[in-house]
């Protein structure tokens, strides 16, 4: 393969802006998804069956269907129910909801991993539900949920490439557009793969670092 | 939405199912080789395998599919797009399955292997009768999970022009202006397939030969 770096080097600013779009959609989607997922998990724990059943069904549906179908439904189906969204907000909403479904399961497992005795002890001391969640459950499960959370973040970053299909101007869309303009599609896709590879490995490495740091904190605590 | 449209979707779901199952099987075969290479302990084998696994786990499947779809004709291999898609899915799932299998082999309790040694098992016997069955048993749930992931990911092969479930619903939606019922039905079909796979997985975990009685602790 005769690789001409000019194809890529001439377009570095565009690629950087695409990468930036990918990064912010990913991070905002992940944070919003975590917040929403936390609400869903607490709702399922304390809301009684009336809340648990529909939320559980929604989570199962979101986890059992492809992300592509979900964003198609929002992007192409939305206008028919008065929800006309531009690609970026649509992609962000799609990613957030998708992330929330998986996050809620992570938090649910995290809640379940906190020893029941701790919760009972807190109840005996007269802590309110809110206090139990904030003072007992959250701090105790922080370490337990971190590894699956990092895992999910990596999956989500890769899933965000799918947003190029609904023309969100993120990394995949930008680089493949450059590739077809320059008649160097293969080179462009190769560069694209390497960029993702680097970002994913960096994210995974950061996650591992955070885990070790938190583990030290945990065992250093009195 | 008429029944006829739904029937078209179900027919297209056959492609989705076929592509996924072939990819899972091919990926498993490749994963066994990759896992053997990773556990061999020789840098000549482990370094390229690690690179392979890291690459295919670190790059979005969509990008992998685009890469393979364009790379194959470039290096002079002209295959139908279905084959290219299956190659892409297989390579991706092989990387994940290899990592799972490695985890399975590494969590076979050393005590069991030592016991086999003491009982005079040869290395081959230890592998075939102790390590392999336990590792397979331990990785079975992950394998079912991976099969479900690949089934969902196979929606991405619609991008390289294969008319499977996602592409069919997309095409029908643009010609009938009924995106909501069509995409919802496609989602429902995916859901039914995924749930069925999960159900089969859970059933075989309990009833296939090699099923561990609950709490037997054979893994530790």
Structure at a glance:
With 222 residues, chain A is mostly helical. Chain A is built from nine helices and no strands.
What descriptors fit this protein?
heterodimer; A: 222 residues; mainly alpha; MetI-like fold; flat; B: 220 residues; 8 helices; 79% helix; 0% strand; disordered C terminus
Describe the protein in words:
Chain A: The chain crosses the membrane at residues 23-41, 53-75, 136-157, 183-206. Chain A: Keywords: Amino-acid transport, Cell membrane, Membrane, Transmembrane, Transmembrane helix, Transport. The complex is a heterodimer of chains A (222) and B (220). Chain A has helices spanning 6-9, 12-46, 49-64, 67-77, 87-113, 116-124, 129-159, 171-181, 185-220. Chain A is mostly helical and 222 residues long. Chain A has a single domain, classed as MetI-like (MetI-like fold), CATH 1.10.3720.10. In chain A, helix 2 packs antiparallel against helix 3 (49-64). Chain A is flat and about 70 Å long. The relative contact order of chain A is 0.14. Chain B has 220 residues and is mostly helical. Chain B has one domain (3-106, 140-207): Orthogonal Bundle (MetI-like fold), CATH 1.10.3720. Chain B has eight helices and no strands. Chain B is flat, with a radius of gyration of 21 Å. Mean pLDDT of chain B is 88; it is low at 216-220. The A-B interface holds A 1, 60-61, 64-70, 72-73, 76-77, 80-81, 157-162, 164-165, 172, 176, 185-186, 189-190, 192-193, 196-197, 200-201, 204 and B 54-55, 57-64, 66-67, 70-71, 74, 148, 152-156, 158-159, 166, 169-170, 173, 179-180, 183-184, 186-187, 190-191, 194-195.
